[in-house]
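Figure caption, in words: inputs first, then the predicted bound structure.
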Amino acid sequence: MTVSLHLPQGAQRLLNAPVTHLIGGVHVASESGATFPTINPSTTDVLAQVADGTAEDVDLAVAAARRAIAGPWKDLTPGERSKILWRIADLIEQHAEDFAVLEALDTGKSVTMARLVDVPLVVEWFRYFAGWPTKLVGESIPVTAPASPGKYLAYTCREPVGVVGAIIAWNFPLLLVSWKLAPALAAGNTVVLKPAEQTPLTAALFGQLIQEAGIPDGVVNIVQGTGESVGAALVAHPGVDKISFTGSTEVGKLIVHASADNLKKVTLELGGKSPNIIFADADLEAAIPGAANAIFFNQGEACTAASRLFVHADVYDQVVAGIAKIARHIKIGDSLDPDALIGPVVSSEQLDRVLGYLKAAEEEGARVVAGGGRHGDTGYFVEPTILVDTRPGMKVVDEEIFGPVLTVQRFETTEEVIEAANDTSYGLAAGIWTQDLSLAHKVAAELRAGSVWVNSYNVLDPALPFGGYKQSGWGREHGAAVFDSYTETKTVVVPHQ
Ligand code: NAI
Ligand code: MG
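Bound structure (magnesium ion present):
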């Protein structure tokens, strides 16, 4: 451990020892004894050594999760499950500073953002889902049963799917833990969680708190390690009933293939190339900073990042100049600098990937109006970048970059911009900026995207369904909709009289 900063006690304690798995309520090293380092992308220092899991560790974790689902977890009342979820929220709130600092160190995101966005959202997610165990009701359904005449009482009930394998990405590590675990646990499932290998720390701290919250042993298991080893073993495991995945579209497709053997249920929250449309009548004082924030938030490492900006010709110059000015002035810095709003991207791989896209943009004839390269020479910092003269067919327009890079295109007509906005294999989110209410609703209806924000962006709430059209995913997370994929519906039919 090479960090010599003064860290909050809980964060420091976590970094003082090798990070372990949590299997059956016990914090353990890998069966193989292997570890891997996790890096601070602001400095490239090693933060901690982490247990490097294999299929053996996954086997143990799945076995623990299977035992727990038949055991203590099943015997708790819905009200008792509620209380545990609420206590998890309280504990995260009490340790908010530890979580915010660890998240900033591990991901590179600004600690200010982690404090204001990530951690409060996680608390809210557990509180919201704490209300659900007592509300997962079935129905009684009148039936005719023409081929089996008689009178019947028929009803449905919702049961847990079983053991959920949750595989998550590195851009919002703790928030994604809450997106998977809060609904899975509310519905009575047990979980084997695989954090991203780039960002194992906050899940590890979470694993230490849940026992205090009253989660019985084996209900939540955490296996650290790579996708190729731990992730793939989880997806292939016959003892796993459902996989809930957040990550790249490429790996999403691998998961669909690999899950075929036991036809486990799969939900996928994948990438995006989300359009943001500024009409001529938009309130530009809101739209300009709104569009800048929609791409640069979290260094552009967000599945919803509004990476394709479409601006009406009448306001094009003004909007581009306004966003370029913001891009040039956003403070970039070490993730623990409270004044920095943009930190480094997560890893050297991600830095290379983003810089590769910037090189391709140059070769394909895009013009840089702000940023355009690496920032500094230590750490994995990328300048907030705005590219104009961009068009479909360019890599930067067609592919998800997952960095602070915005492409801008000019439009004249509503029909033209709707077609251009939908001209993508993705469909996660979209933004519309206009003061014309009818136009906003018309365009919202035409966009092929799971979330459409009007005169706003990235308004996320545990009550609002979230997920992708097209290659942005399968299924919806959050709200009542998430339970479609975390419960099985059982129909019971009883003759009466
Ligand atoms: P990734 O999709 O490889 O990683 C996400 C998770 O999947 C990690 O936990 C990883 O260990 C796991 N994984 C990898 N291969 C697996 C396999 N064969 N079976 C099971 N699990 C596996 O994403 P990566 O490589 O870190 O990032 C690459 C690109 O993916 C980014 O540049 C970005 O474009 C996109 N991405 C999108 C995210 C989103 O929120 N939609 C999140 C992270 C990345
Ligand atoms: Mg790291």
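The mean pLDDT is 97.
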